[in-house]
Amino acid sequence: MAGGVSSSSIMETLFQRTLEDLIKGLRLQLIGESAFVSKAIEEIRREVKSTDPHTKSTALQKLSYLASLHFHDMSWAAFHVVEVMSSSRFSHKRIGYHAASLSFHDDTPVLLLITNQLRKDLASTNEFEVSLALECLSRISTPDLARDLTPEIFTLLSTTKIFVRKKAISVVLRVFAKYPDAVRLCFKRLVENLDSSDPQILAAVVGVFCELASQDPGSYLPLAPEFYRILVDSKNNWVLIKVLKIFAKLAPFEPRLAKRVVEPICDHMRRTGAKSLMFECIRTVISSFSEYESAVKLAVVKIRELLVDDDPNLKYLGLQALSVIAPKHLWAVLENKEVVIKWLSDEDPNIKLESLRLVMAMVSESNVVEISRVLVNYSLKSDPGFCNEILGSILCTCSRNVYEIIVDFDWYVSLLGEMSRIPHCQKGDEIENQLIDLGMRVKDVRPELLRVARGLLIDPALLGNPFLHRILAAAAWVSGEYVEFSRNPFELMEALLQPRTSLLPPSVRAVYIHSAFKVLIFCLHSYILQSESITSSFPDNLVLGVSELVLKKNMLEGSELTTCEAPSAHRSEGFNPRNQSYEDLSIKNGGDRTINHGQTSTPAFSENIFTYDSIINLINQVELALGPLTGSHDAEVFERTRHILCFIELIKGEITECLVQKGKTLESEEMKASKIIKLISDAFSEELGPVSVSAQQRVPIPEGLLLKENLDDLETICADFQVPESNLFSLGSPYYGEEVGVSSFGLQDKEESEPSNEATSLLTEHRKLHGLYYLASEKNEIVGNDYPPANEPKLQVNPNNDTEDLVKLTVQSLATNKKPNHAKTRPVVVKLDEGDLVTVTAKRPETKDDLVSGAVREVLLGSDTRTATSQSNPSDKSSSKRKGKEKINVDRSELKENLGDSEKPKHENPSSRKNKHRISGKERRHKSAGKIGEEREENGQKGMQKSSHRHARHKAPHRSDAPLNVVSQTPVIPDFLL
Amino acid sequence: MIRAVMVMNTQGKPRLAKFYDSVPVDKQQELIRSVFGVLCSRAENVSNFVEADSIFGPDSRLVYKHYATLYFLAMLDLIQVLVETLDKCFKNVCELDLVFNYSKIHTILDEIFFGGQVLETSSTEVMKAVEEISKLESASNSITLSQVCFWLAGSIACVFR
């Protein structure tokens, strides 16, 4: 340092705040932390430009501190970091490296500048400098750095300095990940380190293999003998745990492995005093060797020890182990039932949760009622979080595989109702889904469902709880859809229109209003039917038949029939008010009809509720309640309100008038009103079933239907529900709209056709709105004749699928004789989905790891024969060491020669990679003079084995023409194992 | 693989944070906050594991231990090693030691954890290395600095003893 420079730098240094000053200042500052920090950063910006290395490095140290603990960006200082890294003074260098590993990432531009510095430090004689470089590399290495520095790391892998070697071993993991070709060079040395007697080295190398094996276990099978030796010999718990982890991963790939390994593992389990090792043994046995009865039994004994331990960690781990084992050995859970249930009330949320999972694992068809009862009661006493965990797991378990374990659906539905009333319940969405789902899938449960829905709807207190709103929406939907099971529809209407519904969000309110519409239609329709039946005893049967028909048939028939019904209806209304006794009779008929209507034996109305007065009251009530909503700002609420009010407008006059006049004068008018009601009623009584998400693809678009044009905006509006519009039409009856318009209302103008069209469009809209309720899984419980239009197109499009459905349907109905109506969706769909998921997740790591594992296999299988012999002959170590040395010698001498014959990955740039390539090429040549064919086979075979397609493909074309001993290769691996 | 090691006090102030994936600083801050959020909601005397999928992504787990006013995060045994080492290093380690010894605790950390792997589980070995490094550092400082700097180096050396 000369003259001015040095004096100024001394001044700088003199007045510079050290890191300690900074920290103290931070603690004492009065100006606020962020202000203080930004002042400090300003200072650092100045100092870091200093020419004095000490000032610079101190500034950088302060900056690192602020970046690390006060989260200040320091990427701007990247270049200064490089400068400080290259300082010759260790303390500065350290600061530089620390800053680099803290702030550098793949996109840091100056990374290109540090390659040489790293190389220099990796070759340093000062082991701490080497260590700094390795540490930094382990954190920031990029493909380029990994590639360029592979030779240095290769050298360090066999250095005598333990302190450095263990870090070199660890860094290999990162290098392999970034630059898979490094495997060809370094892998053998890495493997040699498995033989090391030094515990530190062993720990490091086993750690690396544990990570490698977790990515692609199959490739490391040939090393099983080495791991086995460590498993038996090592005294270091940490190493043992890692080796156990490795075996757990290898086990599925080589069944014969288990036989050898299980005994030593059990030994460890029995002998060790360390809980961590014991737990790892347990975990290995239960996850990978669960078919070894004796081992599992021992593991369960040990698990029990953990379960009753005082340490919450051990309890937790014990419970976790049980849940791993539960699917295969449920007895283990049952054996510990009491403990598990006891921990359900532990104070530790982890433990409670685990034991809840275990309790749910024990649930079966026979005990689900009992367990759910206990759990629901328990949830009442739990804190909100755990309460919802309980409810969630009950819901999830009971609905699994389409309610597989539920036999008594009435019970389950009332349980759902009960859950909804639990104060902390936040499972509204799930309960909502299940209520609707059950309604659609399980016919028999509908009466009970309606009862539950009614209970929820009439309780005004529930409206105030936002978590229940979704459930209330479901209840409202149920009450509208299955109103025929109601004892008292008027009461439902009252519930749907109660003032507190103003507390509901618009989307739910719209469901309420629409359900009110359905209830209204039902009441009117029942009233009409009832009046009709009074008039004549002879048409009674006819009407009965008609009403049944109407239910099932499509519009065409319906509308024809109404023409003959209408007159009688009209007449009956005339009689009604006068003849009380007659009316009483009619009540019964009405009741009967309702029964037919519902197609099941359900509540008959105890008294005549569909009187003229009651109907008029009902209509008034609706008008009164909904009137104010015409001003609603929510489109959905507004629309639905308008629909229902317009409808009332339309029929009200007619009904009252004709009743008042008792006359035949307005016959046609009356006809019209009842026709409209019937039509809408028919539309509503069309049964909804669960629909597969993919159903739409099977439905051909009817000719002349311009879906795109009409519904473009709708599609954007309803983009969330993947269910396209046409689905909704064809699901019901595609002919609805047309036929109605043409056949029955040709004459009539807007007003008249509107409601009926409205009915269908309401239906459509309804389905749109409730798109959520259409199930994702395919459904075969749809009783065939109920949905002829939906099924027909399906048949045309995909006959195979449909027959498949049928077969399953019959199989199922045979299987579920007791409760033939219990819908069971085709499990195939669910499984398919799962299967897909599994394959997806399984594939991802493989493709990612393609290159590494490909290279590993190449190296390992290339050395197969050698290792194989070594197994029988213990001089393996020396031989492989010899190889290593040979390779190095080769490096130096045979460079040119080998370059030629080794095939290279194309993307290589010759400079720094020469070495390694030379080596791999050399090695290959060296061992394979006569075995080239065989080696090729290995490659090909590996490719087939699955993970290394790319790699195999990459080179196979060049030389995999010899169909030599494909078979011979597979036996080679097991040879080591046994 | 270890994703991150953190030490924080009971107010959620980080005292040591090292991430082994590259994580931008603002994300780091967010992670530390959410970890603290999870930890402070847990009672004393409960198990030391937290399923951390929501914070660190799938299949990650948070293991922590609560010492006096500090939360330590990593695998339990390793936490033990780390604390043991710190204890040896600072003689009854306390929060202030960590506050003022930024560089040293990083040295210790780097000896135990290496690029997300566990490198050393013996605190004696760690101590040996740490002391060597400290010596080397103070030596490199004191030898070459000018007089004025020497005075400063004294204070640095003091930090590293």
TrEMBL record, chain B:
Subcellular location: Endomembrane system
Origin: domain of life: Eukaryota
Keyword Transmembrane: no
An example Gene Ontology biological process: vesicle-mediated transport
Predominant location category: membrane
Keyword terms of this UniProt record: Membrane, Protein transport, Transport
GO CC annotation terms, alphabetical: endomembrane system; membrane coat
Pfam family, one: Clat_adaptor_s
UniProt feature coiled coil, ranges: none
Domain (AP complex mu/sigma subunit): residue spans on this chain: 1-136
InterPro entries in UniProt: AP_complex_ssu, AP_mu_sigma_su, Clathrin_sm-chain_CS
PROSITE patterns: CLAT_ADAPTOR_S (PS00989)
Keyword field contains Membrane: yes
Family: Belongs to the adaptor complexes small subunit family.
Protein name per the record: AP complex subunit sigma
Source species taxonomy: Eukaryota, Viridiplantae, Streptophyta, Embryophyta, Tracheophyta
